[in-house]
Structures are given as C-alpha cells and as structure tokens.
Amino acid sequence: MTDTTQNGPMGGTPPEEKASGPMLAADGRPLKRSLNRALRRQKLRALALIAPLLIFVLVTFIAPIADMLFRSVENDIVSNTLPSTTAELKSWDHTTGQPPSEAVFEDFYFDMFAASEAKQHTRLGTRLNYEDTGVSSMFRSSGRKLDDLGKDYLKALKKIDKRWDDGAFVYSLMQGQGTPDTAVVDHSRTAIHKLTGAETAGDLGFAPSEAVAKLLPDMTRAYTDFAVYTGLVDGKDVAKEDPWESVYVGLVLDLQKADVSGYDGPGADLLKTTKADLGQIPVESLKDFFAKMDKKWIDPDIWATIQTYSPKYTSGYFLNAIDLQLTPDGIKQRDEDQQIYIMLFKRTLFMSLVITFSCIVLGYPVAWLLANLPAAKANLLMILVLLPFWTSLLVRTSAWKIMLQQQGVINDVLVWLGMVDDGHRLVMINNQFGTIVAMTHILLPFMILPLYSVMQGIPPSYLRAAKSLGATNWTAFWRVYFPQSVPGIGAGSILVFILAIGYYITPEIVGGTTGTFISNRIAYHISSSLNWGLGAALGAILLVIVLLLYWAYDRIVGIDNVKLG
Amino acid sequence: MAVTIAKPTSATFAAGCAAGFGAFFGLFIGTASGSGPLGVIAGAVLMFVLSFLAVQTMRGQEKTAKWAFLVLFTVAGALFSGIPGAVLGLLFGYFFGHVTFWLASGRYRTALPPYLTPGQVLWHYAFRTIVGAILVFLITPILVVIPLSFNAENFFTFTPAMLHFDPAGYSLKHYRDFFTSSDWQGALWNSVRIAPVATILAVGFGTLAAIGLSQPHVPFRQWIMAILISPMIVPLIISAAGMYFFYSRIGLQGTYWGVVLAHAALGIPFVIITVTATLVGFDRSLVRAAANMGANPVTTFFKVQMPLILPGVISGALFAFITSFDEVVVVLFVGSAGQKTLPWQMFTGLREQISPTILAVATILVAISILLLTTVELLRRRSEKLRGMSPS
Questions:
Q1: CB within 8 Å: A398 and B350
Q2: pLDDT class for B164, splitting at 50, 70, 90?
Q3: For residue B370, what is the nearest residue in chain A, using CA coordinates?
Q4: Is A25 a domain residue?
Q5: CA-CA 20 to 30 A from A400: which of A49, A131, A294, B186?
Q6: With contacts defined as CB-CB under 8 Å, which chain A residues touch B213?
Q7: Minimal Cα–Cα distance from A415 to chain B, Å?
C-alpha cells in the first residue's frame, strides 16, 4: 500500500465510491490525478529550492566557461578591423603568386587609416603575428607612415586652391545638397563600433548627400569614417576639425575616375578646377605606396594569411594548440622549433601519472594501517593526514621550496651528514623532481581518504580465512585483500589525476622551466602574451580531458559519494 | 587481544638488534665526522656491548637501566658537541634504553597473534616504520616551517645559532614584519573582507539547494548535481581564465564583488557535499510530525530541520571559508591590485623577492587550519551523535 498521507491533504477513499470507475480522493477527484498533482508540486518545490543556486552557478561559473570556449574559436578581429579589405579579398586567388589588385590596396588603405586613428591596427598586427611572424612590426611601422601620402596630396592640392586645407569647407563640400545618404553613415557607424567597441549610435549631425556619395565614393567613405570617429568616439565638433589625410587620398582617387562637370553642389567649382589640374598632383598607386613602405606588402603570403583568417570563426587556435597551423594551403605541421604544446600536454599527462602512482605507493600502506588500527589510534593518525589537507596550498608549496632549494634544509642536512659534497649540492628544485615531490605531498591526502573509506569496508576476517586455508601472507594479500581495495585505488587515482593535470600554483613556484604544466602555459597566454584565443583553446582541450575523467569518476564512484574529511 | 604472553628473550638477541640500530645511526654520525664504515662498526660494537651488559646485569631493574642509558648518552653527547649533542644524546639514550628492554622482556610480541613467525613479526614492525616515515613526510613541511619562522636571520634554513639553541638565534622579527608591513596588513584585510562574504553566499544558496536536492523526487538530479559540483572539478586555471574573460565583459573584473562571486562559486560544491551528506541521515518523518502538530514549513525548517543539519552546514561553511581564504589562482585573474589577498601576496613573495616574512604568515595560516580542522572534526562527531550514528 502506498503511503498517500505523505503527499498532503488526501485521506483514504470514501467507502461509498468504491462501486465502479476510478478510485477517488477525498475531494472527489480521481486519486491518480491527485497523486500526480502532488508529485508535480513536490518536484516544483524541490526545483524552486535549487533554482537560486543553479542560476547563481550558471551565471558566475558556467557562463565564464562557455565564454572561454567561445573565445577559442572567435576570430572577428580581422574582419572588424579591415571590413572592406576582407570583403574585397574574398575573390582573390592566392595560388596565382601575384599580390592582390589595386582595389584591395585601396580598401586596405582606408581600413588601415581608420584603424590606426583608433589605434587598433597594432592589435590586429599582434593577432596576425601569431600566424606569420614579423607582421606585427609591419603593421606598427606602416601605421605611422599612412599619413605621408595624404600629406603629399594635400600639399599639392593647396597649391591648386587654399580652401582644401580648410576643415569647415571640406565639411560643407561633403554635406552637399539634396537627400542625405544615411546608408553610408550607418555603414560607417557599424564599422567604427566594431573597430573600437565604442557606442556610435548617437546624433552625428552629418550625412553626405547622395550626389556627393555617388560622385566621390572613396572620399565620402573616408570622410564619414572620420566624422563618425571624431563626432561620436572623440566627441568633438566635426565641422571644426581638420579631416584625416585619407580623405585627400580618397579625393585624388575619385577625381581620376569621376566626371564632375555635371555637379552643382557646394564646392563644385573647386572640384572642377582641381580635376583640370590633376596633373600637378604626384599621383601614386596605393600598391606602390605600400611596397615602398615595406616590400613584404606585395608579398602574396601576407595577403594569403589575412584571407585565411578573415572568417569570423576559426579553427586556427585549436590547430595551434596541437602544434598544427592553418595556412592558406590547408592544415600543416608547425616548424620543429615551434612545436611545444603536444610536448607540454604529454609532459603534463606523464607527470600527473607519476604523481598518481607515487600517491598510490605512499598512500596504500598508510590507508591500510589506518583501516586496521583500533578506532582511537586511527583517529589520532588521521589528524596527521588531515592537517596537511587543511593547510593552505601556498604554505605547503613554500615549505617545499624552502626545503628543496640548494641552500635549503634537505641539502644542508645532507651536507652536514657528509653524504653530499658542499660544492655539489643536489638540484632538487626548478625541475620535474621538485614538482613531483611537492605535488605528491599535496595530493597524498586525496589518495589516502578514498582508499581508507574503501578499506574500512573490507572485513579483516577474509585475510585470516585465506591464511587459515593455507595461503601465504603475500598470496592472502594479493589474491584476497588487494582485489577488494581496487575500487579505492580507482577512486583515489582519478581524483588525484584530475587535480594534478590542472595544477598551476605549485609547478609555477617549484617547477622552473622543465617542471611546468600546460596550465602554466595557459596562464602565460592569458596574462603575459595576451594570445587569449590560444590560451582559451588550450584550456578547452584540458577541460575536455578533465570532463572525460570526471565522467569516468562519476561512473565508478558517483559524485554523490565524494567525501570530505 | 593479549593472548601472547611476554617471554623474556636472550641478552644476545636484544643486544644484536640494538647493534643493528647502532650500526644504522653510526652510519650517519660516521659520515658526519668523516668515515661512514668506521661509524657503522663503532656504532654496532658499542651498542652490542652496552645492551648486552645492561640486559645481563640489570634485567630486574629496568627503570634504573633506562635512566643510566639516558644520562650516559646525554653526557657523552654534551662532551662530543655541546648542547645540540646533548639533545641528540638524550634522544638516542631514550631510544636505546627503551628498545633494549622492550626486546629483552619480549613485550614486543604482546600485541601480536602468538602464531606469527619471527619473519612476520619483523615485517609487522618494518611496515609500521615505513608508514611512520610516510606520515613524517606528510607532516615535515609544516614542522620545518614553524621553527624557521622564529629565525633571527633572513635565511631559509636552520642557522648554527638555532641549532645550538642560542636564544640570540631566535626572534619574533618576521612576525613583527608581518604586523607592521602595510602590504601584508592590506592583504590580510582584503582576505578578511572577501572570505566571509563569499562564505555567506555559498552557504545561503548551497543549503537551500542541498535541501531541495535531498527531496525524494527531483527531476534531472544527476545533471543538476554535475553542474553544482563542477567548480570543484574544473581546473582552477580554466575557471580563472573563463571568469577573467566573462567578468571583463560585464564589468566585474577587478572589483570586490567579482572576487566574492567567483569565490562563492568555488565554495558551493563543498557546501553541497557536506550538507547533502548530513541530510542523508535526516529522518523526514520529523518534518511530517512537525507539520502534523501545526507548524508551518518555515517554522519546521528553523525549529526542526536546521538544528539537526547545523553541524553539516557549519562544516560546509568552514570548507567554503578556507577555499576562499586559501584561493590564489582565481583572485590573480579576477582581482586587481585593490583585491590583493594574503595568498596572492604570498605567491608574489615566493615568485619575486622571497622574504622570510612568508614563514611567519605560513605559521599563522597553519594555526588557523589547525583551528578549523579541530572544529570540523568536533562538528562531525556531534552530527553523527545527533543522527544516532556511532562516533567513529
């Protein structure tokens, strides 16, 4: 009989209703539905109690992990910094061995100019440098020289007419007459927003007229970028500022193609005279301009790299994390001298295995003794195991640093005992040995505790029975006791291994260069080299390994059975 | 258990064993003063003769003989190398006096089953020695740090003055440094400001959820449990990296609340585990009984359920507290200079300019952990008593 009373206000079934049909509860509803409702209410109550914590953990912990996973494939910096270039570059075929067309260089010039005004071009240079060494310095030095071309043009333009140097005049020329072209402004707003991350939605007060935008597309683009950046990011009055030099480069480019004879907006006369005197301006193709700054700009390889990393998402970081590289010609091995991550993963796994194994060797006898001593004595010894477990990790790590170093306690004792010559003190720190010793010590309690709880459940009479049946000590242990303690070894090993492969602090302090783990590399990429994508990809791989082990642990031991202390 | 009756053994047996120990210690004394092999032989011969004589002549007067050993060794040690020698001699004298008569009287077999062969008896004691050595390995780092923190010099090893028990070799200088340095005090203050708030958050949410999880019908229990326990399983560096990215996006990176939230998340699994463990033995009919007598759910919770699970909640809180108090990886990434905690300061100290003040801080932290460990142990026993389990 089910205990219906525990589910709330439901009595037994009234006697007059047992004739036929479904069994009813006290309030006249079918008992089945009533029970279901109570069960549902119970479930909801349980969930309501859990919900606050679940939301808390999802926001403060799971969301950050998801963010990290997202960062390991995210790659919008290239298309955000060079939006038009990447669009134009799509149709270029890198296998021809020729640099891209002049149109790509024109787009690249305007993109780079806006980026260097916003000081974002060096970030992109750093990003591309991960894939192609030397790009960073190209971007940095070229960014400084972008003005030169515009300055030369402006000098020549000033000779034709002084008004070209007047910011307010250029503003009115760009503003033009008739319908404003808001599409150009919106395009620019999005581009600058993506470039700088700044809010660009406010009121700008400037929009080029459709006629100007059609007549002078490059100049309009450069000027609108300038206007959006100056007006909305810098918060200055656009009309009063001198335009970017790129505006004049755009003007010269446009005048070569445009037919200004039919135009009658503000400054039409000036456009006409300038068009007529275009021969006075020392026009230079942008391809030549970039080639003059750095020969590598006309090297197709650099463009192939930009093309390869144009998409918003890339597998590049993950490939880097396993010593491969995404090149324009497909996935390739990295150069021998740059292959470090596979080696680091292998070292992390190998050292974690060594640590796990030493923990088994040292932990097994202790757990055995604890499980076979009388309770009072076992509790006393247990304190010796629990005390290091409760002691701060940094205290234990610093203790090992002090003990293991060349002028440390262990070396001093050995020298005093005459076992080691003073001139040849043992090197026990800043190498794998130091990391293994310190981490074995730190993780040993995590091995002893699960082993102990499993061994407590093995009846000591089994061993005696085996011996009375003629088994030797060794046979009795190996064939009877040991197999029963294997679950404890399994639980302890997985726990120690999971904790070991993610360790950061101890290898950082006692590991030197040869005793560091993959975690140290992740930390390095996040805080020093700032290659966040690669750090995130390495983290994602490590996370997958740990989660697989966690799953195995859950299967073997069950998360509910984790015991503390 | 004591079925074995102690049978006195021959003097040669006791003296032989003592000679073995003598050879072992002789090796160290020998290497320390020049020649290992000579030390082994001298130690063995000396101990054999001494033990043999002692057992032959003074078998009836154990106490006197032990005192004789003690005095003899202490005086010899003092003559050999002053106060450190005397201390060493005292230890040796106690050890040899004890071992000789323990073996000679046959008491070493009393705790063991009578059918064991001599080899098995030897293995029994060898095994205990091995375990003892491992336990010493576990505890040594802590034992080394505490005396070194009273060092008068800025060294990380025992100075000759310390080994001679010269009061001038000891001082409280590193403790003074800790209590007067603004860096350390700032770090301590930050730790004290962060850990309790993180603990309160973790315990508040965690206890409620643990009660929810212990209800009989919880949908997706496995999945929820896996998510809630995950902060303990995911390597800290990954949590730290993720939190660094995500908290920068939402403007929490480098703020006090960012660190508190991160630490609360890390402490939650410990609260969940300890509280659910307490709830396993909780008798649910008590809640029904309370409801039956007219208590509403809130009253039932505070008057009936809470007092019973309180030990588990407090141990969970202590775990969460120590997690936050000791945590360094996440705070390194999520915090900024304004949230520099004690472990962070220690970490920079260890990586850059290693100063002996760290030893004083380490000793203080060891004292705190001993305090917490004692509290948790007492609570565990109390909880088991409350739930009617026998204290183990």
A1: yes
A2: confident
A3: A387
A4: no
A5: B186
A6: 46, 50
A7: 8
A412 touches chain B (CB under 8 A): yes
pLDDT at B388: 64
**Positions in chain A short of pLDDT 50:** 1-18, 565
Instruction: Encode pLDDT of B305-355 as tens digits.
Output: 888 888 888 888 988 998 899 899 999 999 998 889 999 998 988 887 677
pLDDT at B261 over 90: yes
A65 assigned to some structural domain: no
The A residues from 24 to 63 touching B (CB cutoff 8 Å) are 39, 42-43, 45-50, 52-54, 56-58, 60-63
Q: For position B389, what pLDDT does the model report? A: 57
Residues in CB range of B219: below 8 A, 6 or more apart: A43, A47
Q: How far is A430 from chain B (nearest CA, A)?
A: 12
Give the pLDDT score at B391.
Answer: 43
Contacts of A352 in chain B (CB under 8 A): none
B241–A522 C-beta distance less than 8 A: yes
- What residues of chain B lie within 8 A of the CB of A505, using their CB? 328-329, 347
Specify the amino acid at residue B10: S
Dihedral angle over CA of B366, B369, B370, B374, nearest 10: 180
Q: Which alpha helices (H) appear in chain B, and where do they start and end?
A: 11-32, 36-58, 62-104, 118-148, 160-163, 173-180, 182-213, 221-233, 236-249, 256-280, 285-292, 297-300, 306-326, 329-334, 342-351, 357-386
Please name the residue of chain A whose CA is at the shortest distance from the CA of residue B276: A560
Does residue B283 carry a pLDDT above 60?
yes
pLDDT at A10: 44
Could B211 and A419 be called an inter-chain contact, meaning their C-beta atoms sit closer than 8 Å?
Answer: no
Phi, psi of B255 (to 5 degrees): -115, 160
Range of the domain at A501: 341-561
Closest chain B CA to residue A508? B351
Asked if residue B21 belongs to a domain, the reply is yes
Model confidence at B257: pLDDT above 90: yes
Q: What's the confidence (pLDDT) of residue B390?
A: 47
Interface A-B, measured as beta-carbon pairs within 8 A, has a size of 288
If asked whether residues A295 and A386 sit together in one domain, one would say: no
Tell me, yes or no, whether A389 and A536 share the same domain: yes
B261 and B186 within one domain: yes
Q: Tell me, what's the pLDDT at A168?
A: 85
- Please indicate whether, in this complex, the C-beta atoms of A418 and B36 are within 8 angstroms of each other: yes
Shared domain check, A527 and A398: yes
- Mean pLDDT to the nearest integer, B251-265: 93
**CB-CB under 8 Å, A64 with B243:** yes
ipTM: 0.86
Chain B touched by A558 (CB under 8 Å):
no
Number of residues assigned to chain A: 565
Backbone dihedral region of A427: left (phi > 0), alpha (psi from -120 to 50 degrees) or beta?
beta
Long-range CB contact pairs, B176-184, < 8 A, 24+? B177/B355, B177/B357, B177/B360, B178/B357, B178/B360, B178/B361, B178/B364, B181/B357, B183/B345, B184/B342, B184/B345, B184/B357, B184/B361
Q: Compare all CA atoms of chain A with the CA of B374 and give the residue at the minimum distance.
A: A383
> Comparing C-alpha atoms, which of B88, B23, B80, B87 is closest to residue B51?
B23
Domain boundary among B115, B132, B150: B115
Output the pLDDT for position A17. 47
The predicted pLDDT at position A561 comes to 62
| Residue in A373, A383, A398, A430 to test binding to B, most B beta-carbons within 10 Å | A398
Classify B279 as helix, strand or coil: helix
Same domain? For B87 and B205 the reply is no
A386, A394, A407 ranked by CB distance to B373: nearest: A386
Tell me which chain A residue has its CA closest to the CA of residue B243: A64
Higher pLDDT, A264 or B293: B293
pLDDT (0 to 100) of residue B132: 93
State whether A190 and A271 are in the same domain: yes
